[in-house]
Write a structure and sequence with these properties.
Blueprint (H helix, E strand, L loop, with lengths): L1 H18 L4 E7 L1 H4 L9 H11 L4 E5 L7 H15 L3 E5 L2 H5 L4 H17 L3 E5 L9 H18 L2 E3 L25 H12 L5
Parallel strand pairs: 1-2, 1-3, 3-4, 4-5
Helix pairs in contact: 3-8, 4-6, 6-7
Length: 204
């Protein structure tokens, strides 16, 4: 009887350890810049993020649900189902670049990002917003409003912000693929370091 009781205790401990192996889920909600366009499966920054979380012994797993070509409107429509399915503790919203490249109104982008921030918070998740900038050929007025949109959203919602995803290498042509838009593998650790500074406090 004592042996059976001991076995039951060991089994219960194993089951508890299995369910508590991950204290939370980090949901990466982005476009091709996070989906790893043009990269090998193990090179994109969300994969490197998962590795760093493991090395840091933080009890979180990473779900990368990014889709190449995604806009803020598409992300907004898909997010409720993802929040229900993954129940993330942190949502990294990396969307807006495709809105900008298509010249869509910044006001529409802001409305979509705000809706995603609201939905994430209502689901109990912390939010990290990833900002982007448009090249100067889009005109000073549009590029200024586009960049400012992320700053204003982060301030209004008191969310952490990475002002510019490509900080530190945006002017280095060798860090981009032939299209001049998507970063190469060598740029992915730089992106991770930039994001990690704002993300790490949310994982405590």
């Amino acid at each position: 009887m004592a042996i059976r009781a001991l076995l039951r205790l060991v089994l219960a401990s194993l089951m508890l350890a299995g369910t508590s192996a991950f204290a939370g889920t980090v949901l990466v909600w982005g476009d091709s810049l996070s989906a790893g366009y043009g990269l090998r499966p193990n090179e994109a920054w969300p994969i490197l993020l998962e590795q760093r979380i493991g090395e840091s012994k933080l009890p979180h797993k990473v779900i990368n649900a990014s889709i190449s070509g995604e806009t803020t409107a598409g992300g907004r429509s898909r997010l409720p189902a993802a929040l229900q399915a993954y129940k993330p503790s942190v949502v990294i919203i990396e969307l807006g670049a495709n809105d900008g490249l298509r010249g869509l109104p910044a006001s529409a982008m802001v409305a979509n990002l705000q809706a995603m921030i609201d939905a994430s918070k209502q689901a109990g998740a912390k939010v990290l917003l990833i900002g982007m900038r448009m090249p100067p050929n889009y005109g000073p007025d549009y590029t200024s409003r586009f960049e400012k949109a992320f700053l204003d959203l982060a301030k209004a919602n008191k969310t952490r912000l990475v002002p510019f995803m490509m900080e530190g290498f945006a002017d280095k042509r060798n860090y981009f693929q032939q299209d001049g838009i998507h970063p190469v593998a060598d740029a992915q650790p730089v992106i991770l370091d930039t994001i990690w500074q704002q993300l790490k406090p949310l994982l405590r």
